[in-house]
Design goal:
homodimer; Rossmann fold; 25 strands; 11-stranded mixed beta sheet; 489 residues; alpha+beta; BirA Bifunctional Protein, domain 2; 13 helices; 5-stranded mixed beta sheet; Translation Initiation Factor IF3
Chain lengths: 489, 489
């Protein structure tokens, strides 16, 4: 913990992994590509879960839980879904181990082979819709608005903590509606909920938009996403909301009787965010000293570091203890670092690595002068504050830091978002890193060619697109859409 | 939902499954032995999670998350653990599906075979201790007090919703300590936390005690459990806390450097409760009308059922709406059932099945007389209440119902707990159902013989045992322990 991290400018990927591990957010597990989320990282995930749950409930959703294991045959039912998902999955083939007759280890019991292999869910549409078939008969049973918090496995060869691991945690909403209009409204409402949480709680500005055909979720008729810019100017898809039309209802034969007694297929959206959001927070706000956490999600918002020698120890710890009590009374999550065995400098580095928004230093001289030294992690330097008012001022200060982190991310994104004038400028921008806002002729072949040349993809067709008068950045043909291009995680 | 359930007296097992399904707590999933926890059941689980999390945090624990998939070889490391667990597990052998060259389905890619098979966690000691090895170096790193909420798979052939399913949800605490005394203290503290939650929140009295050698967790040196009596007089183990000694530290070579610079093995407790608790709540409190939920965990504590005809509809709904607002202001979870398409009688049955603690009926005549009809689900009949004071009285009433459910369960248990005078009386009691409190000579063979004869097991050696002067119920030898025998789930 005491050692620093690789500077971002030197190796961004290495910086990222260093921060995640040194801030004790997560570690690699024993199986390649798996992740252990450590208490500090998990506390952030719990704060995010609470922020989402409040809004899911306010929009009429309920949590539930569907099984981890799905029959293999289910994945063949929805054709597009098969293509996109059913490849890199964990397959359960047996259900028993026995003692190795030739040694002292364990072997898989060859007699305990499953008749049909089971898949660890890579996403749950298939199992959810197999249950909806049982629960839905009439229009009175609709809408169903269910969310689940669950673990997901998608086999990955190249993994990175939080961003891409074989197992990750997420929430997946699966709702069932009587009309196409209602399904469309739900799909849009949930991407807006995602935007709100990511912007207001994570302090991370996002672009809301639709995916092109080639980037859509397998089985969806429309996919909305929120896209954020990371510190290396690449895009990170931070949440998606899909309108699945009637595809899954068809695949699982889910119909309902309408009020006027007709039989109709049910309409389906699904939407999800994952522990990837923690990776986004690290990359968007972090610096060479480590994490910078938005106050609303920080497990510890303020740390008090008492500075003492043997002879001042008890007086300083007593004043620090009183300050911590006052701060806690303000509803602020505060921690006192009263460790004896490390230096103040070590502690400063430690809490900067952990991204705690505010540090308060308190020494004998400060106490004598009735003040404390206050250090903001968002980078506005040190300042003295009257000890008496410091606790009461913290809620407003934390709000200010929350806004400041958002503003910094927004300015960074603005600085690296351009409207390239021509194909050469576009290529230069994609090579340097950043978002290009420009015209696209709507042809998937153009999109593929751009990706082949620059590795950039269309992140989205933004909600506020205006293609009027634009031409395609690559072909010069009239633009069908104004889009955001970027290289992405 | 409208139809009743099989009476308990007719077929207890069928009654149980009927209630779980008709109250919409859970359903069977598509794979044999898997369970879908529906929103109403999941809301109870969330309330339980919150109750446990509060106490876990208060006792210094932090939540984290460890991987689902564990290398097969890990299960060979701790010998006793292998014997007890490593048999009926789900084994992942492959990581890819491909299109069937001979058809249009999907087959497992024979090329994508894992070098080492992976096991879906049946419990996480092995993976947790493999990480603790990385995190623990010195006495300064101890204690580690981590809990995780996770899904678990143990292959089961005969399953029952909540009580025994191949996949279930649970929490598992895994802590690491420098001394045997601290590990023992942790083990005891957590069984006491379990007792408190189950008794205070679930309104279910339990017996706290230690397991005999034969009933201990595989790998543990001591297992504590809480045992509750169900409505059919059988016992249900509702939570366990294990002192694992240094067994897992040995198996995973986890040592720490002491303050005086010696190298020692770390001490380990682990403890868990699962969604089984929801099954316990159904069986301990339910009746032939359905669930009876303890108010503290009930997703809906009070339901208001307006009773109206076309001409009184708007006046009654207006008064009911006002009442619901008043009740919500008391911090009570309330629901208004204003459905038009079903009768009041249907609604009464519906909410009784769902176990809502209090129902308030409100019709035009009640409103004219300034009263409401209040019905307690714990069985104390109907009574009129002045409409004005009804909301304010509800928190106290809910507390009273919470206590009344506990008292009913306690009386039921007392009625069916006996001190059998001799072996014949013991056998009769076990055949009829109930708890026997009696002496046991401490011999595992005696224990096994009693089980063979009566299917009863030693549920625990209760915390307050007093074997002085007792003789063994089976052999007549001096008793080594006073124990609780019962047939169990």
């Amino acid at each position: 913990m005491s050692k620093g991290v690789t500077p971002r400018s030197q190796d961004y990927a290495r910086w990222y992994t260093d921060v995640v591990q040194k801030a004790e957010l997560a570690d690699y597990g024993p199986v390649k590509g798996t992740m252990v989320i450590r208490p500090y990282g998990y506390a952030i995930w719990e704060a995010l879960q609470a922020a989402f749950n409040r809004r899911f409930k306010a929009t009429g959703h309920q949590n539930a839980y569907f099984p981890l294991l799905i029959p293999k045959s289910y994945f063949s039912r929805e054709a597009a879904h098969v293509k996109g998902f059913a490849k890199e999955v964990a397959v359960v083939t047996h259900y028993r181990l026995i003692n190795d007759p030739d040694g002292d280890g364990l072997i898989v019991d060859p007699e305990a082979r499953l008749e049909e292999e089971l898949i660890i869910r890579p996403t749950s549409e298939t199992v959810v819709w197999s249950m909806y078939k049982q629960w839905i008969n009439s229009y009175r049973d609709l809408p169903i608005k269910i969310n689940q918090w669950a673990n997901i496995v998608r086999w990955e060869m190249r993994t990175r903590l939080f961003l891409r691991t074989s197992e990750f945690l997420w929430q997946e909403g699966h709702t069932a509606h009587a009309t196409a209009a209602e399904a469309d409204e739900e799909t849009r409402q949930m991407i807006e909920v995602y935007r709100e949480v990511v912007e207001e709680e994570m302090a991370l500005p996002v672009i809301v938009g639709r995916k092109t055909d080639s980037e859509r979720f397998p089985g969806a008729v429309e996919t909305w996403s929120i896209e954020a810019m990371m510190g290396d100017r690449r895009a990170l898809q931070s949440g998606t909301s899909h309108n699945l039309g009637q595809n899954f209802a068809k695949a699982f034969d889910v119909t309902f009787r309408t009020e006027d007694n007709r039989e109709e297929l049910v309409w389906a959206p699904s939407w999800g965010v994952s522990t990837r959001l923690i990776g986004a927070m690290v990359m968007a706000h972090g610096d060479d000293k480590g994490l910078r956490l938005p106050p609303r999600l920080a497990p510890i918002q303020v740390v008090v570091v008492p500075i003492f020698k043997d002879d001042t120890r008890s007086a300083v710890l007593s004043a620090a203890g009183k300050l911590v009590t006052d701060i806690a009374h303000q509803g602020v999550r505060v921690e006192l670092d009263d460790r004896d065995n490390v230096s103040p400098g070590f502690k400063f580095n430690h809490w900067e690595m952990k991204g705690v928004p505010v540090r308060i230093e308190l020494g004998p001289k400060d106490i004598a002068e009735g003040k404390a030294v206050l250090v903001r992690r968002d980078g506005d330097g040190k300042e003295d504050r009257a000890l008496q008012g410091v606790a009461a001022g913290l809620p407003a200060l934390l709000d200010d830091i929350q806004r400041s982190l958002f503003r910094q991310a927004e300015e960074f994104r603005a600085e690296h978002t351009h409207v390239p004038e021509n194909w050469e400028a576009f290529k230069a921008l994609m090579a340097a890193g950043g978002f290009a806002r420009c015209g696209w002729d709507g042809d998937p072949q153009t999109e593929a060619a751009i990706k082949a040349d620059t590795k950039a993809t269309i992140r989205c067709i933004p909600l506020d697109e205006d293609p009027t008068g634009l031409t395609c950045i690559r072909t010069g043909k009239p633009a069908r859409h104004e889009v955001i291009f970027a290289r992405a995680y």
